[in-house]
Backbone:
């Protein structure tokens, strides 16, 4: 058994079998999958025991693919780290793969690729704190295509039947939302996925889902909500380096149920692999920030918080990637509202950049959302 390091490249046979073995806890909660460069997902076959996954021919991965481990029922908590050591057998060689330094619910353990007719496997230990669905959103992959994923509506997408079924009224999670028109809230589709009962965190007012777009990770809710809609900056594009604020309700069970606001800047005008519907920003966010507001310095809405990338493991591979968070551009929000037949107000854009005033307005416009089955 040879111990490997992040970034190390292993030369392997073109047709070697591949076996992944999970040596730690919770092996039965984990699925192993391969994702091609084109976004096609295929899972490895489970072996004779719950801790073993097999691919009979590594050529099935094509020219380039990522191999990842993820917790299928990640809303019930837990991280892949508890399941290490993870060992990989390729052909007749056995390798001990490095554990992530951060707590992650989805881990990319390797990238397999062809170069000059030779098959190589690049060792990795990076991933996503928020699980496989954050990975799918970052890669613009349909969440429904993920093998073994827990169905938020009450069951597993794989062969586990009712194993993860939740009785009605079970709390599934929380997120953030933005008031964009009278009584109209925009959030992420993944925030409300699988839920049947939606309420505001403050006041417990009922919300009704009226539109959802899983592909672009947007959803529209309606309710009797007090507050002033945020002006949407739909006519002026964001610019690289622009200062932004992120407002939402991260980690409410740990940090409290009051609004959190952080600052940063627009660090990239496209999302993962050139996705023009998203942009990158550096304002810190956390679990529960999803669906929250991204604003310019005057408090005008420029985007909706969508996902975040774990960074420490990239540093371990010799790369620098601090505060890489992804937002959905407000132009997509505008288009979804119009397509849903919602009257979109045209308030004048705010020109007041006094930070106290901006944050005061956000308290009336950014809400927390509680989701139950």
Residues:
């Amino acid at each position: 058994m040879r111990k490997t390091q992040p970034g190390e490249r292993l030369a392997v046979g073109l047709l070697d079998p591949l076996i992944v073995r999970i040596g730690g806890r919770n092996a039965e909660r984990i699925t192993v999958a391969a994702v091609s460069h084109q976004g096609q997902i295929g899972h490895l076959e489970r072996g004779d025991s719950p801790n073993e996954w097999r691919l009979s021919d590594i050529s099935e991965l094509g020219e380039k693919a990522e191999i990842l481990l993820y917790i299928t029922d990640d809303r019930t908590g837990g991280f892949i780290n508890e399941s290490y050591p993870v060992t990989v057998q390729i052909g007749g060689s056995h390798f001990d793969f490095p554990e992530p330094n951060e707590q992650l619910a989805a881990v990319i353990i390797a990238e397999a690729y062809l170069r000059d007719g030779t098959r190589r496997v690049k060792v990795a230990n990076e991933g996503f704190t928020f699980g496989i669905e954050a990975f799918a959103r970052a890669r613009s992959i349909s969440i429904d295509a993920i093998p073994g994923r827990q169905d938020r509506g009450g069951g597993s997408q794989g062969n586990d039947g009712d194993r993860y079924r939740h009785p009605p009224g079970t709390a599934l999670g929380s997120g953030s939302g933005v008031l964009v028109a009278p009584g109209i809230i925009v959030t992420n589709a993944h925030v409300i996925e699988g839920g049947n009962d939606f309420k505001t965190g403050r006041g417990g007012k009922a919300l009704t889902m009226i539109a959802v777009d899983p592909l672009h990770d947007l959803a529209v809710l309606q309710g009797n909500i007090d507050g002033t809609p945020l002006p949407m900056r739909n006519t002026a594009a964001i610019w690289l380096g622009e200062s932004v604020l992120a407002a939402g309700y991260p980690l409410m069970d740990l940090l409290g149920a009051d609004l959190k606001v952080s600052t940063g800047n627009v660090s990239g005008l496209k999302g993962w692999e050139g996705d023009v519907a998203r942009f990158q920003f550096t304002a810190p966010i956390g679990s529960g920030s999803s669906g929250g507001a991204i604003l310019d310095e005057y408090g005008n809405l420029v985007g909706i918080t969508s996902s975040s990338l774990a960074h420490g493991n990239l540093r371990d591979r010799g790369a620098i990637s601090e505060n890489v968070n992804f937002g959905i551009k407000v132009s997509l929000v505008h288009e979804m509202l119009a397509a849903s037949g919602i009257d979109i107000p045209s308030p004048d854009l705010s020109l007041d950049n006094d930070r106290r005033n901006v944050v005061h307005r956000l308290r009336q416009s950014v809400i927390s959302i509680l989701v139950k089955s």
The mean pLDDT is 85. Residues 330-339 form the longest helix (10 residues). The longest strand covers residues 118-128. The radius of gyration is 21 Å.
